[in-house]
Fold these 4 entries.
Entry 1:
Amino acid sequence: MNKKNRLLLFLWLCAVALLLVGSILAPSGGHEETIREAMRDAVLHESNKINLPGIGPVNPGLISAVTVTAVLLAAALLIRIFVIPRFRYVPGKLQLLLEQGVSLFDNLAKTNSPWRNGFLGAYLFGAGCYIFFGTLFELLGVQAITTHGTSFTLPAPLSDVNAAIMLGVLSYFVICSGAVAGNGFHGIGSALKEISLLISMSFRLFGALLSGLLVTELVYYYVTLSFVLPVVVAVLFTLLHALIQSYVLTMLTALFYGEMSEPHERKPRAKRRKSAAPVQSN
C-alpha cells in the first residue's frame, strides 16, 4: 500500500470515528411514538394512511404499488417505441443490458420447464422486474402526506402483506395454468395438492422484505444509531432483498411450473375380456 492510499484510509477512519463520537454525544430529540408503535405501524399501517381521492384512506403500500407499476409500464412503452426499433447487429450498452435481462429469465424458464415455457419466460421477467424495482423504490425516499397531515416515506410495495399475497396468488395461478396446459384437466388435481405453495411464496416474500424495513426503522429510531449507519443498512438490506427475492420467487415459480406442466402418460384402462362360451363338440 503506497502513501496516498494510506493517507486516504487514515482520513476515512478519522471521519468514521468523528461521526461515531458525534452520534453518541448527540442529545435525543424525543419521539412522537414508542418503538413498539413504530414497528406495529410498519406492518399494519394503522396510523400512517394516505387519503386517495375517490377511495378514502388506504395503506401507503397501495400508493407505492400503483407508482411502481405506472413507472414500469411507461418505461416498457418508451423502450418499445424508441429503443427496440433501433436495435443493431452489434449491440450497444442499453441493448446489451436489455438482452441480458431477457435472456436471464428466458433461460431460467427453458432450463426448469422444457415444456410450454414461452409464457413462463415473459411472466418471470415481469415478476422479477416488479420485485427488483419495487424493492429499490424505498431507497428513493418518496414522501407522501398522511391523513394526519404529517410527512411519510412510501415503503416498498411488497412490504405490505396484501401485495405479497397477491403476487403469491398470481404465481400459483401461473403454476396451475402450466398443470392444465401440460396434462389437461387431470393436472388440476396435482396442482391443488401444492396449495401450500401459495402461502409459502407469499409469506417468504413478505417476511424477507419486512425484515429489512423493521431493521431500518429500528436503526432510525435511536438517535445514537441514526448517523451514517442507516444509509449503509438501508442500501445493503434493500439491494440484497431486491436481488435475492427476485431470484427466489422466479426460480420457485419456474421449478414448480416445469414439474406441473410435464406431460404424464396416462395408463390405458384394462379392457374387460368377455369369456367366450365353451364350444361343445358333438
Entry 2:
Amino acid sequence: MAPDGQTLAPNVYDAEPIPDAARAEIDRLLTSGDLFRYTAPADAPVALLEVEFANLLGARYALAVSSCSAALFLSLKALDLPKGAKVLIPAFTFAAVPSAVVHADCAPVLVEVGQNYRVDMADFAAKLPGADAVMISHMRGHTSDMDAIMALADAAGVPVIEDAAHSLGTTWGTRNIGTIGRIGCFSFQSYKLVNAGEGGIMVTDDPELAARAIIMSGAYEQNWKKHPGLQNSFGHWQNKLPLYNLRMQNLSAAVIRPQLPLVAERVAKGLANHDYVAGRLNSTTTLHVPPALPQESRAPDSIQFNLIGDWTDAQATGFQSAAKARGVSVQVFGLSDGNARAFWNWQFLGDPPDLPQTRAMLMRACDVRLPARLTRPELDYIADALIDAATDACNQ
C-alpha cells in the first residue's frame, strides 16, 4: 500500500513462503548432515514425503526426484519404450517436455492445441495410430478432455503419462489429475503451488513401473529395500537397469512436507482469485478467459486469456508494454522473445511442424501470474491494468 492509501502494483513473483514448521527439521538436518535420502535406515524426509504425497493423491506409489522433468524422463524409461518411440505431446507446453522425450531417446510428435489451450481431439485421434506413448501436459493447469484421451489411448493400447506440473489439486470428475494415466508427474519448482525451489514427484498404481523408476532414479545396490512393498520386482530388476541418479535430497523434502496440508487452502484461494479476475476480463470485448471443461475443477496460480478481435502483432506487443508500464507483467506467448512455450523456439527438434491452430492461439494468448496470497484490491489493480492496457493498445 502506498503512503497515500492507493494500492501499489502487486509483486506476483514472490514464491509461496516456506512454513515455519520446516525450519526445525531443516536445522536438524543441517546439524546432522543427514541430507542423502538413503542414509537413514527408515523415515528419511524423502521417504515420508513419498508416503504422504501418495496418500494425498490416492495413488499406490510415489517417487520423489530432482525435478518434474526428471519424473517425465523416468516415466518414459520405466515404460521401456524402444529407441525412437513416438510420443504424442501437446504443441502448447514447456520446452522441458519435448526435452524429456528427446532425453529418453524418443521422438516427440506435436498435437494441435485449440483456443482454449487444450488438445485438439481430432488432431490427437489422427496422430495416435503409430504412437508408442502419450504425454499430456495440463499446461498452466488447463486439463484436456481426459475421458476422450483415455478412451482412445486405451483402445489403442497406448500408455498415457500426465504432466501435471501445473495441476496439483486439480480434479477431473472424482479423480485427481495425475492419477488418470499410467503415471502422473508433478513439480515443486518455486512458481508452482508447493514451493521447494526445485523438485518433482511421480505417482503410479503400477508396481512394475514404480520399481523400474525407483531403481533408475538411483536406488543402487540394496537401497531399493527402503521402498516398501515392491521387493519381488526390485529383486528382478536390480543391476539390469541404468542408474540416472535423479534423487531428491532430504532438505527439499523437509521444505515440501509442511506445505502439503496447505494445498487445499491454496487451491481454494487460487481458484477464487482466478475466477474473480476472469469475470472482470470477460466483461470486456477485447479479453477472454476460456471456461473450464465441465468435468474439471482447477487449481490455478496464474491466469491465461486471449486477445479477441482483430488485433495486429503491433497492438498485441503494445498491450504487453502498456500493462508493464502499469506494473503488471504480461507475456503473449508467441510474441515474447524466445519464449520456451512457443513450439517454434524448440530448435533442438529441427524445423518446426506446421501447426496453424496452435500458432494462431499462441500469438494472442496471454499469461499473468496470480498467486493465492493476493488480496482483492491487488486483484482489482491487475484487472484494471489489463483492461486499461487493452483499451490503450486497441486505440493505437
Entry 3:
Amino acid sequence: MEHENIKYFLELFLSGLTKGSIYALIALGYTMVYGIIEIINFAHGEIYMIGAFTALIVSSVLTMFGFPMIAILILATGTAIIYSSAYGYTIEKIAYKPLRQAPRLSPLISAIGMSIFLQNYVLLAQTENFMKFNSLIPEFEWLKPYKEIIGTEELIIIIISAIVMIALTLIVKYTRLGKAMRATAQDRMMARLVGVSVNKIISFTFIIGSALAAIGGVLIASYIGQINYYIGFIAGLKAFTAAVLGGIGSIPGAVLGGLVLGWTESFGTGYISSDYEDVFAFSLLVLILIFRPEGILGRSTSQKV
C-alpha cells in the first residue's frame, strides 16, 4: 500500500513538472515583454496556438512524403519557431510600438484586440473543431518499463524546457545582447544614450518570447494529441497566472511560477478532484495576490529581465 502511494505521488509530481515546464516556457514570453516595456502581451497565447498549427501543417506534409520521425520533429518545430517569431515581431510593430507613449489602457486594449483577431483568423483559416495532432516524439525503448510513471513525451518536454530556460538565463545574464536587454529594461533613455538600439532590443524580445511559445505549442500539442483555435486563450491565461505567481518581470519567477502552478493543478486534481483543476490554479493566484502581490520571488526594480 505504501509503495502504491509513493508511486502515485511520483506520477503526480512528474505530471505537474511536465505541465509546469510548459507554463514556464510560455510565461517567459509574458515576463520578458513586461520586463522591457511594462506591457502585458495578451496576444501571446495566440502565438502559442499559431506555433502548434504551423507544426501540424508541416508535420502532415512531411509525413505524406515519408520523412523520418526525428526529421519531422526538427523541421516542424523549426518552422513553427520561425513563423511564430515573425508573428511576434509583426504584432510588436503594429499593436504596441505606436502606443509606447500612450496611456496604459491603450496598449492593453490593442493587445486584447490582436488576440481576438488572431483567434478568428485561425478559426476562418482552419476549423472550429478539434484537430488530431499526431505525436512527433518517438518512444524510447528503455523507458517503456517506467511508462506508468513517466513516458517519453513527458521526459522530452521536461528536458527541452529545462535546456531552453537555462540557455535563456545564460543569454540574458552573460551576453552582450542580455546586457542591452537589461539596460533597456532599467532605463530606455539612458540605454539610447550609451548606444543601445532600443527598438531592435524590444523587437528581439518579442521574437524570443514568440519562439519560446512556439516550442511550448509544439510540445504540448504533441503531448495532448489535439488542437483547436481556442487553445491559446487557456494556455495564455495559465501562463500569465504563472508569471504573476512568480513575480512578473522576473525570469526565475516565471519558471518558479510555472512549476508551482503545474504542481498545484496536478496534486489538486490527483488528491481532490479533476473537476476543479482551474479552480486550484486561480485560487492560488488569488492567495498570492492577497498575501504577496509582487509574486513569490518579488520583482527586482533594478534588473527586471
Entry 4:
Amino acid sequence: MIEQEEYKLANKTFLITGAHGCIGAWTVKRLLEADASVVRFDRSPDARRLRLIMNEEEIARAELVTGDITEAEALPPVIEKFAVTHIIHLAGLQVPSCRADPRAGAMVNVIGTINVFEAVRQAEGRINNVVYASSAAVYGLIEEERPVTEIEAARPATHYGAFKQCNEDNARVYYLDHGLSSVGLRPLTVYGVGRDFGLTSDPTKAMKAAVVGRPFHIRFGGRTDFNYVADTADAFIRAAMSDLTGAHVFNLHGETVHIADVVAEIERNRPSARGNITHEDAPLPIPSEMDGQAVRAALGELPRTPFAQGVRATIDKFAELLSAGRLDTGDLDD
C-alpha cells in the first residue's frame, strides 16, 4: 500500500484545468478522497484516464466544464458559478505537440496560463494563489550529472521548455504588478497509470507493454528523475493549500534512476518481459536529477514513493485493468 497524504478539504472548491491529463486525473482523485468539491475544466469530456483509477460514481462527483483555455472569458464565469476557492492549472501541450505546431503550443501553454492568472486576478482575492505546472524542460541540457537547483540559469532546448519559462516569468510579473501569489512546480519524468503521452511517458508505456506481453523500445537512456504520479498530484495540492506569498517556482525531486535499471525493475515484476524492453543510450536533453531542497523547505516533506514500489503498483494496476478488459493499449502504437 502506497502511503499518501490525507487532507480534510470539505468546504473547499478546486478548479482543475487539464483535469483529464495524467496528473490532473490523479489530482481529481486525491481531492475527491479528501471530500473537496472539484470542478474539472478541459477542452474534451473524455474521461478515459479518470476511468483507469476511479469508478463512474466517483467521477460524477466532480463537476465537468468543457471549454477552451485559450479563450479569455472561459474561466471567470466558472469561478463565479462554483465559488472556486483554489485553482490548480495543469492544462498544456507537451513537447511533441509544441514541436509540431509552436503557434498552438504558445496559445495553450502561454496564453492559456495568462488567462488563468487574469481570471484569478478578476476574482478579487477569493482565490489565494495560482498553482501551475512548469517543467524541468526549462533548463535544457546540462552536461554534469548532479542535482539542479532553482537558481541555475534556464536555457530551454524545446519550444515547450521556452513556453514554461515564459509562464514562470509572467507569474513573477503578476506578483509585482498585482500582488498575485503563485507556485509553479517543475516535475521531470512523471510515471504511473494514466501517463500515456510525451517522450517521458515511455517508461510507463514499457510497464504496460510488459503486462500485455508486447515488446517496447524506450526512446531515451541515461539517468532521469522519476516522480510517481500520485506523489506529484499531492505536491500540487499541498502547494494550493499553502499560504506562501510571492511568485515561487520549485523543482520536484523523486528518485533518480538509470533507464537500464528501470528495465531491470520491470523484468523483476514481469519476468516474461525479459528481453522485450529495450532503450536508447542517449539521455534526455534536460537535467538528470532535480534538487528538491527548496520545495521541502517551503512546503514541508512531500510524499515520495520508492521507485520500486511505484513500478510494482503501476504494473499491478495495469494487470488488474487488463483482467477486467479495460486496458487501452492504443498508446503503445504511437
